[in-house]
Amino acid sequence: MSSFNRPLLNAVTFDADGLVPAIVQDAETDQVLMMAYMTEATLRDTLERGRMVYWSRSRQEKWVKGQTSGHAQSVEEVRVDCDGDTLLFKVEQEGGACHTGYRSCFYRRGEDGQLVPDGTKVFDPDDVYSTM
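Predicted structure:
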């Protein structure tokens, strides 16, 4: 997925802040890994590189997934929802998608009024992000 895809870009409707939600799913298992936002520029970068690039709302800057952690996401497939206002990416995930150390950002489930971790960490965030 390294070629620029103009029809896909034209099908996307960005919100008033110039953002579109991107849901990320493991291409092999269909596990939902994370949700982040993209701008037109980060979507272009993603389509050109074949690697996921997001927009960090908290830092107000481009965020290349895996640049710090090494836990990159290679794009296998991209889909646009019926309204054009949400994207779904199927990726090959290297390591964990979540900065907390879990494979998925959706590692907690509601059970008896509590949030319960579901699964084990695949990396130690202190080891990965200690130089930040």
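Summary: The chain has one domain: 6-98.
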